[in-house]
Amino acid sequence: MKKIMLILVLIGSLAFADSAVKMEIGGMTCDGCASGIEESFTEDLPKYKVHVNYKTAIMTVSTQNGSDVNVNEVKTALEELGFKGTLMKKPKHGFSKCGSKSKCG
Ligand SMILES: [Cu+2]
């Protein structure tokens, strides 16, 4: 049991140091919220490349220079805007093949 926990912790820490992450955004009520998040990141955290899809409630974050995304920094920025970001686990086949949230993972 301890071994499983350790593996989970390792996987978790890897997910926190990735050059591109996906987060599920809670609290969006319209398309304006999604574009508002994108605009705020462009203004306040221009080192990130951010795309928010209101319909799927998924935010894609990567960095301009290809370095790792600081997930906690992104989460904090989202909280300041009034949204909640939850890091999504990367599925084995990669996010690109995920048609929707429910198929992901
Ligand atoms: Cu809105």
Structural descriptors:
105 residues, alpha+beta, Alpha-Beta Plaits, 4-stranded antiparallel β-sheet, 26% strand, disordered C terminus, binds copper (II) ion
Describe this structure in words.
This protein has helices at 2-15, 31-44, 71-81; strands at 17-18, 20-26, 48-53, 58-63, 69-70, 84-87. It is of the alpha+beta class. It has a domain at 18-90: Alpha-Beta Plaits (2-Layer Sandwich), CATH 3.30.70.100. Strands 3-4-2-6 form a 4-stranded antiparallel β-sheet. Strands 1-5 form a two-stranded antiparallel sheet. A hairpin with a 4-residue loop joins strand 3 (48-53) and strand 4. It is globular. Mean pLDDT is 84; it is low at 99-105. The structure holds copper (II) ion (CU). Residues 28-30, 32-33 line the site of copper (II) ion (CU).
SSE diagram, text form:
Layout: H1 2-15, E1 17-18, E2 20-26, H2 31-44, E3 48-53, E4 58-63, E5 69-70, H3 71-81, E6 84-87
Antiparallel strand pairs: 1-5, 2-4, 2-6, 3-4
- Largest beta sheet: strand ordering: 3-4-2-6
**Care to count the β-strands?**
6
Coarse shape: globular
User: Based on helices, strands and strand pairing, what is the structural class?
Assistant: alpha+beta
Cα radius of gyration in angstroms:
14 Å
> Ends: how far apart?
23 Å
The biggest beta sheet is recorded as: 4 strands, antiparallel
- The SSE order reads HEEHEEEHE
Uncertain spans? 99-105
What ions, cofactors and ligands are bound?
copper (II) ion
Helix content: 25-40%
The CATH architecture assignment of the domain at 18-90 turns out to be 2-Layer Sandwich
Give the helix tally: 3
